[in-house]
Specification:
With about 140 residues, this protein is of the alpha+beta class. Helices cover about 20% and strands about 45% of the residues.
């Protein structure tokens, strides 16, 4: 039963990841980073993820990559660990223009799907934390 549940969760994570990577207008193009993170297209928005060992910070950006306020918006992160386990965390609004989640430094995370709900609509983007962390250290 637990093995079946794990398989279902991983399948859903894979579908969500695929869906988030193929949003209309998303494409495989590069975005400049306003806050030093990785920027991905997410429906009519962009999401910027800044990864540190102990926290994830997400910024909601408009089409021109201007940071938008977080008031009235909510955000969650679906995290996959190196051993394949999946957990969901709520990103908390901070400073009026960012969402933050504290991470367990003892765990190694591979992927995250961030979903932000604003104005009755949601936008999602998938980030490869291992590749994003490597790119952040090489730039």
């Amino acid at each position: 039963m637990i093995n079946s549940l794990s398989t279902i969760i991983l399948m859903l994570f894979g579908l969500t990841t695929t869906f988030a990577q193929h949003q209309p207008g998303g494409g495989d193009h590069k975005h400049a980073s306003t806050h030093g993170g990785t920027v991905k297209s997410a429906d009519n928005y962009h999401l910027e993820l800044v990864q540190k060992a102990e926290a994830l910070t997400v910024y909601l950006l408009d089409a021109k990559q201007k940071t938008l306020p977080t008031s009235g918006a909510t955000a969650t992160a679906l995290l996959q660990t190196a051993d394949g386990k999946v957990t969901t965390v709520k990103l908390m609004p901070m400073g009026g223009n960012q969402f933050v989640a504290t991470l367990d430094k003892a765990r190694s995370f591979r992927k995250v799907v961030v979903t932000v709900a604003v104005g009755g609509k949601s936008a999602s983007a998938s980030f490869d934390l291992t590749a994003d962390a490597h790119a952040a250290h090489t730039n």
